[in-house]
Amino acid sequence: MNEPNHIEVAETDELLSFLLRRFPQEGRKRLKNLLRVGRILVNGQSQHQFDFPLAVGQNVAIAPQKATIARPGAPPMPIIHEDEFLIVVNKPSGLLTVATDKEKRRTAYAMLSEYVKAAHPDHKIFVVHRIDRETSGLLLFAKSEEVKRAIQDSWLSVIEERLYMAVLEGKLAQASGTIKSYLKESAAMRVYSSDNPHHGKEAISHFRRLAVSRAYTLVELRLETGRKHQIRVHMAELGHPVAGDKKYGATTNPLKRMALHARVLAFHHPVDGHLHHYETPVPPTFAAMFSAASGNIKR
Questions:
Q1: pTM for this structure?
Q2: Is the dihedral of CA 145, 146, 152, 153 positive or negative?
Q3: Which of 33, 35, 40 is CA-nearest to residue 60?
Q4: Is the pLDDT score of 32 beyond 90?
Q5: How many CB atoms are closer than 10 A to CB 281?
C-alpha cells in the first residue's frame, strides 16, 4: 500500500468514508483494522473512531509500519514471526502459557513480556490463545489490546488452519475421521464430552493416521474449533488417549511428556489481511517412535 504522509481534507466527511474513497483498492476490512490499531492519524493524533467527523483543512495520515526492533540478548524461546502487531513463538513442552496460583514467573507470557520490554519498557504483549503446559508448538501473542480483540472477536474467520501432531496409545484402526461433540468443564477443571448441544460448546476435530507402531499411533489433527483440552478429550473418546496424558486415561508416558505438538498455525493478519502460514517440524522424539513408517511423516 502506498501510504502518503498527509492527505488534506477538502470537504467535511466521516473518517472511514474518506479513507474508502481515497483507497478503494484496500478494502473496508484493512482500513478498519488500521483504525483499530491506531495507524490512522488525524492532525498527527491516532484516531480509532470510524465515524470521526473530518473538517475542511484537517490532515489525515497513515502511519508507516514500524520495523522490527532489535533487542539485546537471545529470545527466551524460538520466535517464528514478529512484527509490530504480533509475535508467533514455538513454545517448548513444560512451559505454561500464562501464570497460575503455583507458577507466576516461568511462563511463556512472562518471559516474552520481559523480552519485549528490554527494548521499550512501556511495551506489552497480550495472550491471544493458550496451549497446555506439556504441549509444545506454535503460540500467538498480540502487542496491543486492540489487535488481541480483533483476532478473538473474529476467531473463526481469522484463523485459517491449526494442525497438531499427537502420539496416541494403541493402534488406531481408522485411517481418518471427524469427531464432533459438545465440551464442558467441571468444577474440578476436567473437560467432559456430550452429544447434547445444551451441555457444552461445540468442538470439531478431524484426524488422520500417519504411522503405527506396535503400541502407538501417530496422528495429525486439524481443529475447526479451539476448545480447552479438545484434542485430549476427543482422542480419549476414541479409546486412544494422547500418550502421557494421565488426566484423560493414558497409562504410558514414553516421551516423559504429553505427546502433543501444535505444528501448523495459519491466520489472516488482523491488520494487513494477508494470509500468514507458519509451521514447525515434527518433534524428533515423536518421529523416532515410528522410524519404520517414517515415509508418511512430513518432517
A1: 0.76
A2: positive
A3: 40
A4: no
A5: 14
Residue 142 neighbours by CB under 8 Å, 6+ apart: 85, 86, 125, 126, 128, 148, 151
Q: Which residues contact 286 (CB under 8 A, 6 or more apart)?
A: 165, 167, 218, 255, 259, 261
Confidence check: pLDDT of 11 > 80: yes
Cα(87)–Cα(278) distance, integer angstroms: 12
Are the CB atoms for 84 and 30 separated by under 8 Å? no
| Residue 270: C-alpha distances to residues 45, 86, 151, 230 (Å) | 22, 9, 6, 25
What value does the mean pLDDT take over residues 63-87? 75
Distance of alpha carbon 274 from the chain centroid? 15
Q: Which domains does the chain have, with CATH numbers?
A: 7-62 (3.10.290.10), 66-153 (3.30.2350.10), 155-299 (3.30.2350.10)
Q: Look up residue 105 and give its three cell numbers.
A: 514467573
Q: Residue 275 carries which side chain, given as an amino acid letter?
A: L
Give Rg (Cα) of the chain: 23
Q: Cell numbers 472511514 correspond to what residue? A: 16
DSSP string, 213-225: -SSEEEEEEEESS
Rounded (5°) CA angle 63-141-284:
130
Closest residue by Cα to residue 292 from 215, 213, 217, 220: 213
- Grid cell listed for 44: 498527527
Which residues are registered as beta bridge partners of 265?
162, 278
- Is the per-residue pLDDT at 295 higher than 80? no
Indicate the SS3 state at residue 108: helix
Q: Catalytic residue positions?
A: 132
Q: How far apart are CA 211 and CA 19, in angstroms?
A: 53
Is 53 exposed, middle or buried, given 0-12, 13-18 or 19+ CB atoms closer than 10 A?
exposed
